[in-house]
Amino acid sequence: MRKLRPLLSVTIALLVPALAGAAPVLRPAQLTLSVEITGLFPTPYYYYGFSGALAAQANVSVAVDPVAQSIQVASGVLGLATPILIPVTSTTAVASVTAQTLSNGLGVFSLGGAGGFPGEPPCPSFATVAHACVGQSGFGGVMPVIGTVNIHVIPDIVVIPLEFGPLRLGEYGPGTAQWNTTDAAPFTVRTGQVQGLPTQYGGFTTTTRQGFVTASSFQLVAPVFVSALGNSIPVWARFEVEFTDGGGVPAFVSLVPEPAVALLLAAGVGLMLRQRMGSRA
To answer: How far is the C-alpha of 160 from the C-alpha of 179, rounded, in Å?
Structure first.
């Protein structure tokens, strides 16, 4: 065994610098960021609501790190070309949804990055308090969504502004903005939920959205519960990455880490975010 120790130490010494020095690979991709506002749940009534989506697209490069099993998106690469007006024609108290801007902050996504954030436990099987959560740990993370959507209520003298930054859309935890209080959960390639929404008959319901992975693209979803003027409003961010270089989606995007590994990976993402935010300050 004594003869093996020098060989073992040399092997470890060579391996660690190699892993530490591995640089992320810039890969071209088409990015699509969209926001969906699904339904209006006032108490004690329940309006069968509307669905409106607004989207921003860009063709840029994203940083793929196969060693850290992460993907990073630069801040501000997405934006609306023109303001958007979405008329609402279904039976609801809402006339239209408008938006002037839609953009993104720094995006950091990794294997295990959808779970493990402070105060963000997995979704319970049933909830009577409205909140947002992600169902499983997997590939995901945070990317702040920046912009404002105005919900125009009939008659059009009442406007509910949803400011995505203060509402923490694409991030996690509670937020406030003007009349709104919210609870947000991070992006996940698996299932996002808004739980504990009041129904017409006094019970509670849950709305869900699912991410996906294909050979060349993947989509992440991020849920937010918004309470505004007595209304409970589920809001969803969707972020799709389609690689255009023919290399396909990195294998780690589809993986599900073991619980202990997921905690370590999520802690690493949190440290990475704090370091990068600190370097910008």
So the answer is: 8
Residue 280, amino acid: R
Whole-angstrom distance, CA of residue 20 vs CA of residue 225: 39
| Strand 70-73 relative to strand 47-65, pairing | antiparallel
Give 207's contacts (C-beta < 8 A, 6+ positions apart): 38, 39, 193, 194, 197, 234
Contact call for residues 152 and 94 (beta carbons, < 8 A)? yes
Rg (CA), the chain: 21
Nearest to 197 by CA among 135, 126, 136: 126
User: Rounded to 5, what percent of the chain is helix, strand, coil?
Assistant: 15, 50, 35
Structure tokens at 25: 């690979």
- The alpha carbon torsion through 137, 139, 145, 151 (nearest 10 deg) reads -60
pLDDT digits (tens, 9 = 90+) for 214-255: 999 999 999 998 887 777 788 889 999 999 999 999 999 988
pLDDT in tens, 55-82: 778 899 999 999 999 999 999 999 877 7
Distance from C-alpha of 164 to C-alpha of 167, rounded to nearest angstrom = 5
Alpha helices in the chain (DSSP H): 4-20, 164-167, 259-280
Q: CA 45 → CA 202, 230, 231, distances in Å?
A: 9, 10, 10
Output the six-digit token pair for 202. Answer: 């006094």
